[in-house]
Amino acid sequence: MSDVAIRLSGVSKSYGTGAQASRALANLDLEVRKGAFVSLMGPSGSGKTTLLNLIAGLDAPDSGEVVLEGIDLGTLADHELADLRLHRIGFIFQAFNLIPALTVEENVGLFLEFAGRSKADVRRMTGEALQQVGVTGRERRYPGELSGGEQQRVAIARAIVGRPSILLADEPTGNLDSHTGQVILDMLAALNRSAGVTVLMVTHNLFAAMYGERTLEMQDGRIIRDVRVPERTSELTLVASDR
């Protein structure tokens, strides 16, 4: 069995047509091993979000292949892509994207309902996910009654409740203060280590990027730098406390 979670081969993507076309990705190659924590950096417009969308099967490349855990996304029908996202991929966004009219418990459990889980499974798995991210006693509250850090914890619970093997995080600390942001990063690192979840995280923050064992820098739709760290530094908390 291959130890590669994500493989992109010769992937190009443009938006628009003719003279108005804008190139988002240019003949990009990438491999991410299973259980890796990879940070993705680069200026706005460098192709980071497009890359995440292609990996998630939310968009299709103009050319090249996107393969997730041995599955070529280009061979899947729309309903098969949706099924793959339900069972293999978790998403975390900068803006939390919680549904204001639903409680914490309902926001997290909605994913499982879409996946066809029984009411008993939804209740049990939702409780486990909320406990894992340290949000207990708030199940009946609404997102507007929570702090930003609590909302992001709930968003992480929603992302992991289905026990995905791949976690895609788009600026997960962008709307948080530095202390709360570090708590969220510690949580992502713990999930990566304890559950072996493959994490691909977009960030503009150099400190956040240090949580990855590997940092990719993008520019003009290409990966221009690939920095690998043998071991995560044990001094991250010390560095953060000195900021």
Question: Can I get a quick summary?
Answer:
By secondary structure, the chain is of the alpha/beta class. It has helices at residues 48-55, 78-88, 104-114, 119-132, 148-160, 178-195, 206-209, 236-241, and strands at 4-15, 22-33, 37-41, 63-68, 71-72, 89-93, 166-170, 198-202, 214-219, 222-228.
Explain the overall architecture.
The longest helix is centred in the last third of the chain and has 18 residues, at about 180-195. This protein starts with a strand and ends with a helix. It has 8 helices and 10 strands. It has a 6-stranded mixed β-sheet, sandwiched between helices. The chain has a 4-stranded antiparallel β-sheet with strand order 2-1-4-5, covered by helices on one side. The protein has about 240 residues and is of the alpha/beta class. β9 and β10 (about 220-230) form a beta hairpin. It has a single domain, classed as Rossmann fold, CATH 3.40.50. It has helices spanning about 50-55, 80-90, 105-115, 120-130, 150-160, 180-195, 205-210, 235-240; strands at about 5-15, 20-35, 35-40, 65-70, 70, 90-95, 165-170, 200, 215-220, 220-230.
List the helices and strands and how they pair.
Elements: E1 4-15, E2 22-33, E3 37-41, H1 48-55, E4 63-68, E5 71-72, H2 78-88, E6 89-93, H3 104-114, H4 119-132, H5 148-160, E7 166-170, H6 178-195, E8 198-202, H7 206-209, E9 214-219, E10 222-228, H8 236-241
Parallel strand pairs: 3-8, 3-9, 6-7, 7-8
Antiparallel strand pairs: 1-2, 1-4, 4-5, 9-10
Helix pairs in contact: 3-4, 3-5, 4-5
